[in-house]
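Journal club prep, notes for RB
We'll compare a predicted complex against what the paper describes. Inputs for the manganese (II) ion case:
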Amino acid sequence: MTQRHTQLGPVPMTFSPEVAEARANGTPLVALESTIITHGMPFPQNVETARKVEAEVRAHGATAATMAVMDGVLHVGLTSDQLDRLAGLDDVAKLSRADLAACLALGGNGATTVAATMIAARVAGIKVFATGGIGGVHRGAEHSFDISADLHELAQTPITVVAAGAKAILDLPKTYEVLETLGVPVIAFGQDSLPAFWSATSDMKAPLRMDHPRGIAAAHVMRGRLGVPGGQLVANPIPVRNQIPAEELAPVILQALGEAEAQGIASKAVTPFLLDRIFTLTEGRSLIANVALVLNNARLAAGIAAEIGNLTK
Ligand code: PSU
Ligand code: MN
């Protein structure tokens, strides 16, 4: 990476033709992340899923803006060729809050995590973002101090993030305690309990429950009017027909965690390692569930984006 500018301009950003058209027409927009493509799912299902998620957003009346940094430019929406190129890059960085500015400034390539996608969405004027599961407090964080920057981003950046909760590889009770401490609204969609990523329910009661996108949109807008920084986490359960029961996954997660520890996997590598091991240990079932929950989140996010549009017209 070489530094290209002696005088830096504003954030180098480009809108895909589809996103530019949506902005011109006032079509609701839903941001999508790209770390799930480069670090979260194996090829070729990663690219197939990225396309399916965009199509799902479209089928529900909104336009998808997949975020990524390519050659130092923030792409808000990827063309089909750009998506293929991103998935084919060998040395694509996993960009979180800490890395995004450096990657843009030095002309690098990177995929955006939840935290970086929220920052990118705000810069691009997009209010709603759909993903699989947010990062959170890792098990054993009392020793490793591994807590995802996603949690702090939710406390600071005004984006409504639709996810199937935090990923079940994490310490879920600690993750939700931290979100409460940070003042992040956690809204379970259509049920009283918090979902657990691959599983629809858990024994944790959700702090808030809403059953319609309009309420979630109204809460988003009202938070802004109050001047309270930060976003919201919508915890949208995986459809029951697609779930893997928590008790079935528990030993698999423990085995993957044990392997990560034995191999000294740390920091940014932990989540991709665990997802990959769980994929292998479940013979691909974890990925099928992951795809289903992302599609489900894309649908709900499109509805919320439309309602925010209605409320702020
Ligand atoms: N959702 C998925 N799969 C993923 C992720 C989300 O279904 O791989 C990614 C997101 O980019 C999230 C990241 O921000 O995992 C969390 O990484 P970490 O634990 O290192 O913060
Ligand atoms: Mn981490």
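Talking point for the session: Residues 146, 148, 267, 270 surround manganese (II) ion (ligand 2) (CB under 6 Å).
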